[in-house]
Write a structure and sequence with these properties.
Layout (H helix, E strand, L loop, with lengths): L1 E7 L2 E6 L11 E9 L2 H7 L15 E9 L11 E4 L2 E2 L27 E2 L16 E4 L7 E2 L6 H6 L3 H11 L7 E5 L3 H12 L4 E6 L2 H11 L2 E4 L6 H8 L5 E6 L9 H9 L8 H9 E9 L12 H6 L3 E4 L4 H13 L11 E4 L3 H9 L8 E4 L4
Parallel strand pairs: 10-11, 10-13, 11-12, 13-14, 14-15, 16-17
Antiparallel strand pairs: 1-2, 3-4, 3-8, 3-17, 4-5, 5-9, 6-7
Bound molecules: nicotinamide-adenine-dinucleotide and zinc ion.
């Protein structure tokens, strides 16, 4: 089969690999129809994720058709059209029983924090991902679900990460009716977080980025007020001015470890590897939220130390909520919102790229070329 493979930082290509086999009775093998490239894949592509091995296939977002099932699989049959959450999880450990699917204890012996994630390095379990013609899906009775007939492929693939993660970002903000919510980052996750904030009762939504084409999308798609942080000396001061000098009730970090806006943070993280990522957006979030407010962190950070302004967070009495999204927990609510017309996930999709051209797709998405917001990888066209 054809599969995207990692060759080293900024170098990927499509190679022939063996079609994955059933390795456990509760595995399925899924023939991929659509995958997507996520901002998280960029951390791997840029060589920032520890233990990303040459030959690894990325792809945490994918949907497809069940090709083969193991002997104990009861909920899926060959031919079912399924969406697969990016988390691999057992469904029965201490953490899964509490809905913490992204922190499953049984799927990633390499780490104590994070569970298993498709296509996300050996730090996250070493499972090959869905930017390939076929993918092995462990715990097939637990993670995947059949895609409702009314949901098309592009909308369904957005449900495997970007949309639930944005929605989760808003949920972690514990938004109360009328709250002012600031979202740092106007990528797919930030756009969905901004849109979701309204669904949770926000009275005002502000989105900050430095890419005007994404801010325009935030205004149009998420009806947000927008700020380009490069237009101001200090974006935190602007956020204070915009909120009567109190600060926002809720701030969502939808940027993560590769934040721009502070050269020292960039050099000490991406270049010198002295910290697990640049916490610029997180520090702006801590500074922009009001005392007693909530900071939600869905932007991803590496396992090492980061220079986060924790003293300020402590002294302001902040609540900080963070995690990888437990995707499946969000699906019932999101499917209902989509069916009722409150959300149209594929509205943010800007590009369709055939698997053969995925290297160009990574380059475009990474360099933010051609007004790219969300690229879908077409693996098996109908
Ligand atoms: N928690 C989870 O489960 C989960 C799931 C998916 C993605 N993520 C993470 O969410 C983050 C966003 O993902 P995405 O797909 O939207 O990525 P993306 O790269 O498309 O978007 C990030 C955006 O942040 C902007 N940005 C950079 N520095 C900024 C700053 N200082 N302030 C404001 N904006 C800034 C960029 O211009 C870009 O538009 C990534 O870190 C990704 O790894 C987390
Ligand atoms: Zn578990």
């Amino acid at each position: 089969m054809k599969a995207m493979t990692y060759r080293g930082p900024y170098r990927i290509r499509v190679e022939d690999k063996d079609i994955p086999k059933i390795e456990h009775p509760n595995d399925a093998v899924v023939q991929v129809k659509r995958a997507a490239i996520c901002g998280s894949d960029l951390h791997l592509y840029h060589g920032l994720m520890p233990d990303t091995r040459v030959g690894h296939t990325f792809g945490r977002e994918f949907i497809g058709v069940v090709h083969q099932v193991g002997s104990s699989v009861e909920n899926l049959s060959v031919g079912d059209r399924v969406m697969v959450p990016f988390n691999i999880f057992c469904g029965s450990c201490y953490f899964c029983a509490r809905g913490l699917y992204s922190n499953c204890h049984n799927v990633n012996p390499n780490a104590t924090a994070v569970g298993g994630i498709y296509g996300y390095s050996h730090t996250c379990g070493g499972y090959d991902g869905g930017q390939a013609e076929f993918v092995r899906v462990p715990f097939a009775d637990v993670g995947p679900v059949k895609i409702p007939d009314w949901l098309d492929d592009d909308d369904a693939v957005m449900l495997t990460d970007a949309l639930p993660t944005g929605y989760f970002g808003a949920q972690l903000g514990d938004i109360v009716e009328g709250d002012t919510v600031v979202v740092f980052g106007a990528g797919p996750v930030g756009l969905f977080a901004a849109k979701s904030a309204w669904l949770m009762g926000a009275g005002r939504v502000i989105v900050v980025d430095h890419l005007d084409f994404r801010l325009e999308k935030a205004a149009e798609f998420a009806h947000a007020e927008t700020f380009n942080f490069t237009h101001y000396d200090d974006i935190v001061v602007e956020m204070k001015k915009a909120t009567g000098f109190l600060g926002a009730d809720v701030v969502i970090d939808a940027v993560g470890a590769e934040a721009d806006g502070n050269l020292l943070m960039h050099v000490t993280s991406a270049k010198l590897k002295l910290q697990g990522g640049s916490p610029t957006a997180l520090n702006w979030a801590i500074d922009s939220v009001r005392k007693g407010g909530t900071v939600s962190v869905v932007g991803a950070y590496g396992p090492m130390f980061s220079a986060v302004k924790f003293g300020d967070a402590m002294n302001k009495g902040l609540t900080i909520n963070a995690n990888q999204c437990p995707v499946k927990r969000q699906w019932p609510r999101l499917l209902s919102h989509i069916q009722q017309g409150y959300l149209n996930p594929s509205d943010i999709v800007t590009h369709h790229i055939p698997l053969e051209h995925i290297a160009e797709g990574y380059h475009m998405f990474s360099a933010k070329l051609d007004n790219c917001i969300k690229p879908i990888v077409v693996v098996n066209p109908d």
